[in-house]
């Protein structure tokens, strides 16, 4: 059945700027577009703070923060990348936290995906 659902992932003190960086990293890795709406199979839309859309994710996957949770919002029906991205958002969030901290310390960071793991490489500038 096609409808927009919300899945919650508990993370201590989540921050929207780090979530947006995590979504940017996912967009870069998968070649997706950053948007602000998700839709279901029937075309009903919902506004979200940040979302991704593209090949394999035509109706999008959205993200929000409520309290101690990151919410994953969207319709997974016939969207091959939906579950893969939903299951890896916490890896990307943690990578984005590392990138933010290392950049503040003056390092340049490179994020890659190697064998289903997010790898952050820091280089001195």
Care to describe what's here?
- The protein has helices at residues 16-30, 80-104, and strands spanning 5-10, 33-39, 45-54, 57-66, 69-74, 107-114, 117-124.
- It has 125 residues and is an alpha+beta fold.
- It has one domain: TATA-Binding Protein (2-Layer Sandwich).
- A 5-stranded antiparallel sheet has the order 1-5-4-3-2. Strands 6-7 form a two-stranded antiparallel ribbon.
- A hairpin with a 2-residue loop joins strand 3 (45-54) and strand 4 (57-66).
- The radius of gyration is 15 Å and the shape is globular.
- The N and C termini lie far apart (51 Å).
Main traits of this protein?
single chain, two-stranded antiparallel ribbon, 5-stranded antiparallel β-sheet, alpha+beta, 2 helices, TATA-Binding Protein, 125 residues
Blueprint (SSEs and pairs):
Blueprint: E1 5-10, H1 16-30, E2 33-39, E3 45-54, E4 57-66, E5 69-74, H2 80-104, E6 107-114, E7 117-124
Antiparallel strand pairs: 1-5, 2-3, 3-4, 4-5, 6-7
């Amino acid at each position: 059945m096609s409808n927009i659902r919300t899945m919650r992932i508990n993370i201590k003190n989540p921050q929207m700027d780090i979530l947006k960086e995590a979504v940017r990293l996912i967009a870069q890795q998968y070649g997706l577009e950053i948007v602000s709406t998700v839709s279901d199979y029937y075309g009903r839309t919902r506004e979200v703070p940040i979302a991704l859309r593209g090949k394999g994710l035509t109706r999008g996957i959205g993200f929000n923060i409520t309290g101690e949770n990151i919410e994953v919002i969207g319709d997974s029906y016939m969207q091959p990348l939906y579950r893969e991205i939903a299951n890896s958002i916490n890896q990307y969030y943690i990578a984005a936290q590392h990138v933010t901290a290392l950049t503040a310390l003056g390092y340049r960071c490179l994020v890659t995906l190697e064998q289903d793991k997010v790898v952050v490489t820091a280089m001195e500038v």
